[in-house]
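Closing statement on the KG4 sub-project.
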Amino acid sequence: MSDLKQEECLILAIESSCDETSAAVIRNGTEVLSNIIASQIKSHQRFGGVVPEVASRHHVEQITICMEEALEEAGIEADDLTAVGVTYGPGLVGALLIGVSAAKAFAWANDLPLIPVNHMAGHIYAAKLVQPLVFPLMTLLVSGGHTELVYMEEDGSYQIIGETRDDAAGEAYDKVGRVLGLSYPSGKEIDVLAHLGRDTFDFPRAMIKEDNYDFSFSGLKSAFINTVHNAQQREEALSKEDLAASFQASVVEVLVSKTLRACREYPVKQLIVAGGVAANKGLREALEKAVAQELPDVTLIVPPLKLCGDNAAMIGAAAFIELEKGHLADYRLNAVPGLSFTS
Ligand code: KG4
Ligand code: ZN
């Protein structure tokens, strides 16, 4: 055993829910000693989306390499670890199973407790790697598969007060990107184009005035696709930059407006922005401005880019909370592709 203090909690965390294989070592729930991420994006790009079978095969190839690298970079040995945390849902079942199987095998071989982690809780707890969380808090969770407003009164307690009725925000980005001929996933590229264009297309702001915290992005997506197809039929060229700027203006305005309303009506001290779409520059800028102007008592936490996309460090941060609460799994732990905060 290396010379680490015994009272330290060192968690080896594993993430394989979609198209990144990742392993990390987290100290005391807050400090990232290593965070190894093997992205498979290039293998999926030519198909325009994640191919589940291809994802599983990559995870099989990468998982042990990532785990070994995570331990090596953290400068620790298996004997130093307190527990193993792993994403068991939501996500692609075959992809999740690789991480779950690897975590179970490692936990069994090294006689370590096994901590099951909800991937979406991981996205939220990425914020704890930035600064301590103060409750109650609100999270705007925006990823490729989810768009939710989650109210938390304490660690590990999740109340979904609003969610998308159809497409997730990231999904809408990826679908309109495809129509523009951009490669998958296109959120980042649309964000860049949006900063070069102007909001000239007047796309809808769905549900913005409704007295709830739900979202809808499929109408915006259809309006965007119809605009592009109509122009193609007329052999008219439209500015990609203006299309991107108009699309992003609609997404950002709806997300910011609903999030601010939620933060006014719930007694929140912090607002966390989490998930892949939290990397969006337009969203970050708009939220920073709106929170500074309208909610001066609320602290906005937006994790750095590396912690917004899928990674195991965030899973380690969430695993620490589950460990504190004594939520452990045995070797019957299975992947739960449709896992929710209430299941
Ligand atoms: O959280 P994540 O890495 O995977 C899921 O759990 O879904 O999120 C991926 C999503 C993709 O839809 C991608 O297009 C989107 O996040 N994304 C962005 C940006 N960077 C990634 N969307 C908008 N702007 C960005 N800068
Ligand atoms: Zn994710």
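Strands lie at 10-15, 20-27, 31-39, 83-89, 114-118, 137-142, 147-152, 159-163, 270-274, 299-301. With this model delivered, the sub-project is considered complete and its resources will be redirected to Aim 3.
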